[in-house]
Specification:
The complex is a heterodimer of chains A (about 400) and B (about 350). Chain A is of the alpha/beta class and about 400 residues long. Chain A is built from twelve helices and twelve strands. Helices cover about 35% and strands about 20% of the residues of chain A. In chain A, the strands form two sheets. In chain A, strands 4-3-5-7-1-8-12-11-9-10 form a ten-stranded mixed sheet, sandwiched between helices. In chain A, helix 2 packs parallel to helix 3, helix 3 packs parallel to helix 5 and helix 6 crosses helix 12. Chain B is α/β, with parallel strands linked by helices. Chain B is globular and about 65 Å long. Chain B folds into two domains: about 210 residues, Thiolase/Chalcone synthase (Peroxisomal Thiolase, Chain A, domain 1), CATH 3.40.47.10; about 130 residues, Thiolase/Chalcone synthase (Peroxisomal Thiolase, Chain A, domain 1), CATH 3.40.47.10. Chain B is about 35% helix and about 20% strand. The two termini of chain B are about 20 Å apart. Classes of the chains: A alpha/beta (about 400), B alpha/beta (about 350). The interface between A and B is large, with 63 and 60 residues.
Chain lengths: ~400, ~350
């Protein structure tokens, strides 16, 4: 077993940037990605802001190299996963045991929506090419094939914690010496299905979201993809570039409270964070920064906040929700935020929690509102909590 | 992996009578046409009636199987719940999507959307048990069950776990069947009695839910040992498949002659069955082989049913009547399962008594 699993590469695409460099610029300049819909064709346009990747499907296809007939979910995945793999620059990649562990919640739904309106009027109608990639696993295979990954491909879907789970499942495959390199993370595109679904739950903010603010009104949906390249110690030693950090801890726990709502005390969140700390053999005082799940809904932020209070109090590390930049990218969020967590360690930076003007009264701490440089970031805790009570926490540690 | 993985109990809702009180595996339930339909139990014996009203069919099938499996194993709180589903909750997805289109994104209600999430089955099992432990859902086509099972096997080889629950569930819905039929996957007027011998284009659509209580603790109560499982993705040709099977057994220091029974994923589709026919004349020559998709039909997580069948055979020391083969001679102690889904997802399972 490889004792440590290291992060050798990162790739990210979201409404704030099409790659790591653009994302870092936006995070530093405080530029959020929300706005009116330019690419999603929904009647809710103008009523609800969304955080879109600023490319049409055609433009994405040109960059990804995939056919424009495949889902936006796969396009985003392709671009971010390739950036991560190139970043890792593993010379003998084709001689190693490689895996692609991806995650998503909507899969080919953007295309299925087109198909379904014709299909409903006549079951013999609708273009089959629009549903052939409906399954979650299909997007992963399009990308894995393009990246020539053959040893292991799988897909996880546990709502908003999907890609945190794919990252640590990937790490475990390396620890068990089944694979040498894993590209892990997740992707999701905006669709009418998810936008309307969240709208029925009445948890979408009609303005830009305000995570951890007393007057928060809900979340904004976003889209994107984020991947890390995980390698064993042996592979890391063979690389020209130093790895970014280690994935030192991880845990998934279930809130077992309600299908969509989190328990008031954040039982699952507490257990996930505590479990990740135990796994990494760290104490709460070792954590330099928490990348919050921080969706901006009433329910999540008080539940997550209470769990943090119970676990960390009375002294708190710096923390922020980068969903105030990217919106909630669902199955991609754990991957995108893992990339941001890794970059926080690499560059010694902490991201601001945008639009936080009035901190939550119930909580004894206030998330960071300014971009901070020259920080010594030793350990970052990244939270991802989802429907079905699915709570996951990852810890990345400086080497 | 150092620790041995045992199957402590099994449960399955399938198109045959495989569940609970109605269990009857002697006679084959016949299906004609292009699809199978699960024989579902009376759920009021399993769940609170208030709960049943809110559950869609796939959730009921998945959760009932999981609860029954745990009940049989005596495990009250598993250390993990792993679910595989290729398509997820199709009926709820279809309901919400239909309303979204018909109502032009207006006047929608959340229930179907909430239940359309892919991890709903695993989450419902956790809710019913009040289980706070690790809970993961794999949604990777013909590898969905295999991924869930791999996660289970890894967990049982990591320190803190002794009992995990793993399984898979997929459903046929009217819409999904219409759409998949348009891809030419199914025969039009087939019968499951002769499905495996039909040698023409297409198969019959299937569905089902199977769950397994797995442990790393040896016990005379255990049904079988899950010796190994392997997957391979898009092999170049039959030769590569053959090589992978041989390596798999070598890896487990198992001789082909020690395999008492081979369960093959034949589904009656001419193209897909070629590899099984080839193997039956090469590495599986002289081995006893049976098929299973005349019992459950073809679907991406059908291998969960195959593992249920293999476990049943090892438990009862005989091949149940509904398989339709006479198996006489030496007792069955080692079973190899080989399956491929659409020639893309290939998997191998080795079970022993």
């Amino acid at each position: 077993m490889s004792a440590s699993v290291l992060v050798a590469g990162v790739g990210v695409m979201s409404s704030i940037g099409n790659n790591v460099a653009e994302s870092l610029d936006a995070l530093e300049s405080g530029k959020a990605g929300m706005g009116d819909m330019h690419y999603l064709d929904s009647l809710l346009n103008g009523k609800l802001p969304v955080a879109e990747v600023k490319f049409s499907n055609q433009q994405l296809a040109t960059i990804s190299g995939l056919s424009s007939s495949v889902s936006r979910t796969a396009q985003l995945s392709m671009i971010a996963a390739r950036e991560a793999l190139n970043d890792a620059s593993i010379k003998n990649f084709d001689q190693l045991r490689t895996g692609f562990i991806s995650a998503n919640t909507v899969a080919g739904m953007d295309k299925t929506e087109n198909f379904f309106s014709e299909f409903l009027s006549d079951p013999s109608k609708g273009k089959l090419r629009d549903v052939v990639h409906h399954e979650c696993g299909s997007a992963s295979e399009l990308v894995a094939d393009e990246l020539a990954i053959r040893n292991y491909v799988t897909t996880i879907s546990t709502a908003c914690s999907s890609s945190a789970n794919s990252i640590f499942f990937g790490a475990r495959l390396i620890k068990h010496n089944m694979l040498d390199v894993v590209i892990a993370g997740g992707t999701d595109a905006l669709t009418k299905f998810t936008l309307n679904g969240f709208n029925t739950l009445m948890i979408l903010d009609q303005n830009f979201c305000k995570p951890f603010d007393e007057h928060r009104q809900g979340l904004n949906l976003g889209e994107g993809a984020g991947y890390v390249v995980l390698v064993s110690e042996r592979v890391a030693a063979s690389l020209e570039k130093n790895p970014y950090c280690r994935l030192s801890g991880y845990c998934n726990a279930n809130d077992a409270y309600h299908q969509t709502a989190s328990s008031p005390n954040g039982t699952g969140s507490f257990m996930a964070m505590k479990g990740a700390l135990d796994k990494s053999e760290l104490s709460v005082n070792d954590i330099s920064y928490i990348n919050l799940h921080g969706t901006g809904t009433q329910n999540n932020d008080i539940s997550e906040g209470t769990a943090i209070k119970d676990l960390f109090g009375p002294s708190y590390p710096k923390m922020s929700s980068t969903k105030s930049f990217t919106g909630h990218t669902l199955g991609a969020s754990g991957g995108i935020e893992a990339v941001f967590s890794v970059l926080a360690i690499k560059h010694g930076i902490i991201y601001p929690n945008l639009r936080l003007t009035d901190p939550m009264k119930e909580l004894p701490f206030v998330p960071e509102t300014k971009f901070l440089k020259n920080q010594n970031i030793e350990h970052v805790l990244s939270n991802s909590f989802g429907f079905g009570g699915n709570c996951s926490s990852l810890i990345f540690s400086k080497i | 992996m150092d620790k041995k993985v045992y199957i402590r109990s099994i449960a399955s809702i399938s198109p045959q009578k495989t569940f609970g009180d109605m269990m009857s595996t002697d006679e084959l339930l016949e299906y004609a046409g292009d699809k199978f339909t699960c024989v579902e139990p009376d759920y009021s014996k399993i769940f609170d009636p208030k709960l049943i009203r809110r559950m869609s069919r796939i959730i009921k099938m998945g959760a009932a199987t999981a609860i029954e499996c745990l009940h049989k194993s005596g495990v009250k709180m598993p250390d993990a719940i792993l679910t595989g589903t290729a398509y997820g909750c199709l009926e709820d997805t279809s309901v919400f999507l239909t309303k979204l289109i018909e109502n032009r994104e207006d006047m929608l209600t959340p229930t179907a959307f909430i239940q359309s999430t892919h991890n709903t089955v695993g989450a419902q099992i956790a809710l019913i048990l009040k289980c706070h432990n690790y809970n993961n859902t794999f949604v990777h086509r013909g590898f969905s069950f295999e991924s869930a099972l791999l996660d289970a096997m890894l967990l049982l080889n990591e320190n803190e776990n002794t009992n995990v629950l793993a399984g898979a569930v997929d459903e046929i819905t009217n819409n999904s069947h219409r759409i998949l039929s348009r891809f030419g996957l199914y025969k039009h007027h087939a019968s499951n009695r002769d499905l495996l011998l039909s040698n023409s284009k297409g198969t019959m659509a299937g569905e089902g839910a199977s769950f397994f209580s797995l442990t790393n603790q040896s016990s005379p109560e255990n049904i079988a040992q899950l010796v190994a499982m392997a997957t391979f993705y898009k092999p170049l040709d039959i030769e590569e498949t053959e090589k992978n099977i041989v390596y798999f057994l070598e890896d487990m220091s198992t001789d082909m002659n020690d395999i008492d029974l081979v369960i093959l994923g034949k589904n009656g589709d001419q193209k897909g069955d070629k590899v099984y026919d080839h193997l039956s004349h090469s590495i599986f020559k002289n081995r006893e082989t049976i098929g299973y998709k005349h019992l459950c039909g073809e679907y991406p997580t059908a291998t969960a049913f195959a593992v249920w069948l293999a476990s049943t055979i090892l438990q009862n020391k005989m091949v149940p009547g509904f398989v339709g083969v006479e198996k006489n001679g030496s007792p069955i102690k080692k079973i190899l399962i080989y399956n491929h889904y659409e020639r893309i997802h290939h998997s191998l399972f080795l079970l022993s008594a």
